[in-house]
Design brief:
With about 300 residues, the protein is mainly α. About 80% of the residues lie in helices and about 0% in strands. It has 10 helices and no strands. The C terminus is likely disordered.
């Protein structure tokens, strides 16, 4: 019994320590950033001849807190950037261990058109789930989501496109698909159960009901594309298109007509999910990649 418990704890530790590392890096970056903000505010506002020490400290604390809130998005992006090399190192170590047990099977690459279909599915998923969730009123009811949304879309559009639409998808795909999902399979978990497990963790990671409901089905689709295309590029592209569409929907007026009222939101959601359904059927029927010669150097 003791051996089983030890094995379970080792499995859980191996699964979650990358996430714990990321949270630790986030705390470290926040601490250093807050110290810098406080020093800047003190330099600008402290005066020996001004208000009382208590009043100055209160004003400095208020301004520093405001500065930290405005900087929260950048703290998240910096933490993601710092964590990403560690995730790549974990993936490479895991890959070496797997190859000691069983040689890696390499596959032919999918065609550009098959990736175009994938991008269309990702866009359909974005507008589909966003439309349904907004149409039934969940976005207005979830205050936690509103706070997170305000944070995520507080930066300028170019910064959002670089951070939310590009860096964050690559970081999260490394964390949840390339490391965590593969480690679940290493633990003899079936593809279906590993997909559900990593998608539940992915949903909980986002921290509010609206994003959980959105993230879970998208994660399942990203795992499916990861397995179907035999390439890390597939879930990355899916995630980048979905996040990029969300940024453009929120930060521009390009898609305002799709979300102009409750009926239109629900209609948009329905059309988006129809696109997803038929797109996934096309992927299922057409993306059939064959293994290549083991000596080939095709990189996934």
């Amino acid at each position: 019994m003791e051996g089983k418990n030890d094995n379970w704890f080792r499995t859980m530790w191996r699964l979650f320590y990358p996430l714990l590392l990321h949270f630790g890096i986030m705390v470290l970056v926040s601490t250093v950033w807050s110290l810098i903000v406080y020093l800047i505010v003190i330099e600008k506002n402290w005066s020996a001849d001004g208000a009382s020490v208590l009043e100055q400290l209160q004003e400095i604390g208020y301004q520093a807190m405001e500065g930290m809130l405005r900087s929260s998005y950048y703290i998240m992006i910096i933490a993601n950037l710092i964590t990403l090399p560690f995730l790549h190192l974990f993936y490479r170590q895991d890959k070496k261990q797997r190859e000691k047990v069983k040689p890696e099977i390499k596959y032919n690459r999918a065609s550009p058109m098959e990736y175009v279909v994938l991008a269309v599915v990702a866009f359909g998923a974005c507008i589909g789930f966003n439309g349904l969730i907004a149409g039934i009123g969940l976005t207005q009811a979830d205050k936690a989501y509103q706070e997170v949304s305000e944070l995520l879309y507080s930066a300028s559009l170019p910064v959002q496109l670089a951070g939310t639409a590009l860096l964050t998808p690559v970081f999260e795909e490394y964390m949840f698909r390339r490391v965590m999902y593969n480690r679940l399979k290493d633990n003899n978990m079936s593809i279906g159960m590993a997909m559900i497990t990593v998608s539940l963790v992915f949903g909980l990671y986002h921290g509010n009901i609206v994003q959980m409901l959105y993230a879970f089905p998208l994660s399942c689709m990203m795992v499916y594309t990861y397995e179907k295309y035999h390439s890390f590029l597939a879930p990355c592209l899916f995630h980048i298109v979905a996040n990029g569409a969300s940024v453009l929907i929120t930060g521009t007026d390009l898609f305002d007509f799709l979300f102009s009222g409750r009926i239109m939101m629900l209609l948009t959601g329905g059309v988006g999910l129809v696109v997803v359904y038929y797109g996934l059927r096309i992927i299922k029927d057409t993306v059939k990649l064959e293994p290549v010669d083991p000596a080939s150097k095709v990189e996934l």
